Amino acid sequence: MNNQNTPVSKIALMPDENLYNLCKTYGERARIWRQRFAGLLPEVFKRKLYEKKGFFSIFEFAKKLAGMS
């Protein structure tokens, strides 16, 4: 099963176990990307990139770009 771009119509017809596995896959990918984003923050802070892009703080930058709290 191709999990990359599952159309909504296919999701509605998907068995529970397949939907659960898709949720696990997407959840893991979200976790990985959140960790990668967090790994960039020290360099963003060092360069003051958040200020250059109009953010008040590194915290606002992380919240608005990645939903981090």
Describe the structure.
The protein is an all-alpha fold and 69 residues long. The protein has one domain (9-66). It is built from four helices and no strands. 4% of the residues are buried. The mean pLDDT is 93.
How many domains, in number, for the residues?
A: 1
Note the run of SSEs as H and E.
HHHH
- SSE class: mainly alpha
Biggest β-sheet, characterized?
Answer: none
Question: What is the helix content?
Answer: over 70%
End-to-end gap: 34 Å
Question: In brief, what are we looking at here?
Answer:
The protein has 69 residues and is mainly α. The protein is built from 4 helices and no strands.
Provide key terms for this protein.
elongated; mainly alpha
List strands and helices in order, with pairings.
Blueprint: H1 8-13, H2 16-47, H3 49-52, H4 58-66
